[in-house]
């Protein structure tokens, strides 16, 4: 571990331990009569026992979780009481063992801290590392809630160009090498925010070689990597346009783990990776539970903030998740994740097949004029390329780039001198047509990183001319709904492109 102290912002350097949390340890001492705490008496908790029915990871049978049974040292009431801030010790240990088994961190010295989901975890990291006015390195298209957190804090995005593997190392290098020249007087960014598996919105996953290159650049320029990775276990093999192989669901947990792109933890030899894990996409988002994995240096400071901001995540959620994981065991949880991956992979395939039903899908190489990555597929209607996308290798989303050259309405908008942002005007008009037809996509403009008030139009924020993006999610709908939705999309395309 190298000295990373200079990465902390003034607020986190000035934090003191919460005095209330300090005294809690003394309450547990043998024979202590505590007249100190403001804890409610457990006999006055109105909740006594709780039984939850859960799925079994391997069979169709259900398992019963008795939260009141627990282990001797963890009766149900202890989950209802104030905790330490770091979260339940047994659950933390479970997460630690799981991390060791799955990610095999290169830095042996790492700690776990529970948090109430990655949204809050990222906000804690921004408040740990960033000062007002600083730029944060992020993907060219980034998760909107992540930037909605830093915009009011006076931070800006420094977007890094992407391809089908996520952010490009050459683009990261040139952004950093040219920083002083292009941003005189502004401090070079020292934080990289990444969704490197099944990125939201682009669906792309970063392979190991790219990770190594990105990591080495971060070492050279002294950058902290924040890996927001809720989709880690939802990694799929590449989509086959004309499938030759039968989708094999009979892999073992070992093969499943070996098939996953590694976390940056496996590459990090300096303790400069802060990883955000969430149970939202693997169990349920309403649990509001996840955990940080980072060097103890960062975990200690994050704990100080946790103690006075959120305290422990909900005790009930911790009780449910601990009980579920203990009942399933690590192998059972991995089986659950392996099956989950197949479920989402099937949904991705249904969505692309629905595209194939309404459009002709061809490899991007057949449309060199579109300047798209090799693995891109182009959806064509009556010989007109309408949209292109890289079939996702993880996550829940397809990032569709609509090509507007041949669209008559866009051509008119482009000629209209009064329109400052014709691509965005077209996107709004097209989105309204879709809503009228009762099919809802997420506008791509949400994902263009915020770079300050002088860069408001989509093009000023880095978009290519004559294209507009929409995010299409394949997680929530049935196959029939997907087919209906894509048929409606095709109908709107025909009307708008006048085909
Ligand atoms: C990249 C990314 N980070 C974080 C979240 C939210 O995670 P959580 O539910 O753990 O707050 C999402 C959810 O959509 C996401 O896509």
TrEMBL record:
Required co-factor(s) are:
pyridoxal 5'-phosphate
Per the UniProt record, the source organism is Aspergillus violaceofuscus (strain CBS 115571)
Q: Taxonomically, which superkingdom?
A: Eukaryota
**What is the protein name for this chain?**
PLP-dependent transferase
InterPro entries for this protein: Aminotransferase_I/II_large, Class-I_PLP-dep_aminotransf, PyrdxlP-dep_Trfase, PyrdxlP-dep_Trfase_major
UniProt xrefs under Pfam families: Aminotran_1_2
For this chain, the family text in UniProt reads:
Belongs to the class-I pyridoxal-phosphate-dependent aminotransferase family.
Occurrences of domain Aminotransferase class I/classII large (ranges): 75-489
Q: Which GO terms describe its molecular function?
A: 2-aminoadipate transaminase activity; aromatic-amino-acid transaminase activity; pyridoxal phosphate binding
Q: Which UniProt keywords apply?
A: Aminotransferase, Pyridoxal phosphate, Transferase
One biological process term from GO is: lysine biosynthetic process via aminoadipic acid
């Amino acid at each position: 571990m190298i000295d990373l102290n200079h990465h902390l912002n003034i607020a986190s350097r000035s934090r003191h331990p919460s005095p209330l949390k300090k005294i809690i340890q003394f309450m547990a001492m043998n024979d202590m009569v505590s007249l100190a705490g403001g804890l409610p008496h457990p006999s006055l908790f109105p909740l006594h026992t709780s039984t939850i029915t859960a799925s079994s990871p391997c069979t169709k049978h259900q398992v019963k979780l008795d939260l009141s049974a627990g282990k001797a040292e963890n009766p149900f009431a202890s989950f209802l009481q104030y905790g330490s801030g770091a979260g339940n010790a047994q659950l933390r240990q479970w997460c630690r063992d799981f991390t060791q088994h799955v990610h095999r961190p290169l830095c042996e010295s790492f700690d776990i801290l529970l948090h109430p989901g990655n949204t809050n975890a990222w906000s804690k990291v921004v408040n740990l590392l960033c000062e007002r006015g600083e730029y944060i390195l992020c993907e060219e298209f980034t998760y909107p809630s992540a930037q909605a957190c830093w915009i009011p804090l006076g931070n800006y995005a420094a977007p890094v160009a992407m391809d089908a593997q996520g952010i490009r190392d050459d683009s990261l290098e040139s952004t950093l090498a040219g920083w002083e020249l292009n941003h005189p007087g502004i401090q070079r960014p020292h934080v990289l925010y990444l969704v490197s598996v099944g990125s939201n919105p682009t669906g792309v996953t970063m392979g190991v070689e790219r990770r190594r290159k990105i990591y080495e650049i971060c070492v050279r320029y002294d950058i902290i990597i924040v890996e927001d990775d809720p989709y880690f276990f939802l990694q799929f093999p590449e989509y086959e346009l004309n499938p030759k192989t039968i989708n094999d669901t009979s892999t073992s947990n070992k093969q499943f783990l070996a098939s996953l792109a590694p976390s940056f933890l496996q590459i990090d030899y300096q303790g400069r990776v802060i990883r955000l894990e969430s149970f939202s996409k693997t169990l349920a988002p309403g649990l509001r539970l996840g955990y940080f994995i980072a060097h103890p240096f960062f975990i200690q400071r994050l704990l100080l903030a946790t103690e006075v901001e959120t305290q422990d995540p909900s005790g009930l959620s911790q009780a449910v998740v601990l009980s579920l994981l203990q009942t399933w065991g690590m192998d059972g949880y991995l089986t659950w994740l392996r099956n989950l991956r197949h479920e989402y992979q099937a949904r991705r395939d249904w969505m692309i097949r629905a595209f194939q039903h309404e459009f002709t899908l061809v490899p991007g190489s057949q449309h060199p004029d579109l300047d798209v990555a090799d693995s891109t597929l182009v959806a064509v209607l009556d010989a007109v390329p309408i949209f292109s996308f890289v079939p996702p290798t993880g996550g829940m989303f397809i990032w569709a780039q609509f090509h507007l050259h041949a669209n008559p309405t866009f051509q008119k908008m482009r000629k209209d001198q009064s329109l400052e942002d014709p691509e965005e005007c077209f996107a709004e008009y097209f989105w309204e047509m879709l809503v009228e037809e009762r099919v809802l996509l997420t506008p791509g403009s949400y994902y263009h990183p915020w770079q300050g008030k002088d860069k408001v139009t989509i093009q000023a924020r880095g978009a290519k001319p004559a294209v507009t993006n929409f995010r299409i999610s394949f997680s929530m709908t049935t196959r029939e709904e997907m087919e209906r939705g894509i048929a409606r999309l095709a109908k709107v395309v025909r009307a708008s492109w006048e085909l």
